[in-house]
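Run: sequence + adenosine monophosphate -> complex structure.
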Amino acid sequence: MSTDPAANLPFFYGSISRYDAEQYLKLAGMADGLFLLRQCLRSLGGYVLSVVCDLEFHHYSIEKQLNDTYCIAGGKPHCGPAELCEFYSKDPDGLVCALKKPCLRSSDTAIKSCVFDSLKENMLKEYVKQTWGLEGDTMKQAIISQAPQLEKLIATTAHEKMLWYHGKIPRQESERLLYSGTQTDGKFLIRDREEPGTFALSVMYGKSVYHYQILQGKSGKYSMPEGTKFDTLWQLVEYLKIKPDGLVTSLGDACVSRAAGKIPSLPATRRTGPNSYTPPPHAANVTSKAASDVPADNVLPMDCTGFNPYHDPSDIKKFNIRRDQLLVDEVELGSGNFGCVKKGVLKADNGQMDVAIKVLKNDNENLVKAEMMREAEIMHQLSNPFIVRMLGLCNAESLMLVMEMASAGPLNKFLSSRKDTVTVEIIVNLMHQVSMGMKYLEEKNFVHRDLAARNVLLVNEKFAKISDFGLSKALGADDNYYKSRSAGPWPLKWYAPESINYRKFSSKSDVWSYGVTMWEAFSYGGKPYKKMKQVEVNSFIKSGQRLACPAKCPERMYAVMQECWTYKHEDRPDFKKVEESMRSYHYSISNKVNPEGSATAAEPNK
Ligand code: AMP
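>> structure
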């Protein structure tokens, strides 16, 4: 699973040194404008562009900016490495020459991973398992959705996994270790210094041991005195293996720690103990504090107070809930076709949890009751972190459908009331989660038929769940679509042409609605085709026109919307494709490193 936005570029070589880059360029003929891209060894998420001109090599650092763009110092910002290279292929704009010919990787040259890449996947798994107690599919979903944020957290503690890291040992002990065994030049280890959060490098040269303090600047970056600055300790070490950077020698073999391979510490804010699984709310006390009250800055979905949204609800999921297990609050969360949705508490043997209860209105009972039972039947078959879970039905004074609570409410309302504080990055993350939930529905052969921002509920600003399965259908194993016998009171402005014209519904028509939902999200809860009547919308679409790009919407996100609005359903992407596009953009903009480094969740234990 590569989260590198350059991974698909045929001229990207990964974590190779400057020397190796020059060798590849030499082999490829040294033509003017010959270029390749490689990972920056200093900064997380950065690159280096290596270009040939007049038989000389030029290397340009590409930094990832705070606003999620990439740029060469003094140059224009671009939304990704691919876009940046394309730009410089048309206009040198300060480079020695324009990029003319990509130096392509040969079929037997793989992208070189860095030390962290090879550890990353296992570290992510260990982290998610330890911190949130997730396993199996739920763990996979959590990792896919949160990979960029988790990678940032993990990168800062990755050195604890390295063979050369000895933790807190005294200086004398480091000398004893280095003198024992072979005394080769460059043999080294890293240890914690007395002062918490600071490190020392001890290195052997000419049968003597030299000690260096590793500096950590205000920005949180590591360096040797006067040396190059690095985002993480392991990047500094990798660099010092290539260049001495002021040391008596460049680094050679690691003096191996006996504790090597141990599980690295988890960033302090998240770890609560060796088996740090925070029990799901039904096993613990449930706080009545809304999850949305938790400051969202460095919070991952799984960090919500008293709520583990990835929990496995199987121990509480009972289709029939007894009335005495349920406290129904007077507080109304909203209302829908069947009646109102109330706040409540579900009591189980091992605890209690906040729930949302859809209470059937009593008039017209038989008709709506059957509809609500159908909705319950659909929800009962679904289990995905990005879909509101049904916990059961309670048949008492009214029929009540009990669901997990998404207390921050519908996406459109949430965004329209927070236009100034919610960033585009947050919206991309939420819409990526919706695409993951929809991809799951597509795989299970369910069509939603009412996907809209009003039906995406938020647990908090980092965590979205699809809701309202009132119109949903399970398709037969051999069916690609559901055809409704008659039209109903449908949300036509969200509907694909084939649904409006032929009453045909499929995952592809859900993709169209997903495009409209994206539009609503990026326009911060705007109303699609606001001033148009439905007939006008129909001819607008038929004539090839589409909703305009919302003011703050990134180009790549508008491109996804436009693909979702492909007129013919057979040419429209499916959710597998949509999720891929969303994921790649989400990863490309979330990988940024906080230049202030120190005061974030990415802070190592101190
Ligand atoms: P619905 O009938 O499903 O459209 O729900 C009507 C309204 O009730 C929604 O717009 C939400 O404001 C609220 N609501 C529904 N389900 C939940 C839930 N699981 N958690 C929190 N609020 C909900």
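>> summary
Residues 333-336, 341, 356, 388, 403, 405-406, 409-410, 454, 457, 467-468 surround adenosine monophosphate (CB under 6 Å). The first helix runs from residue 18 to 27.
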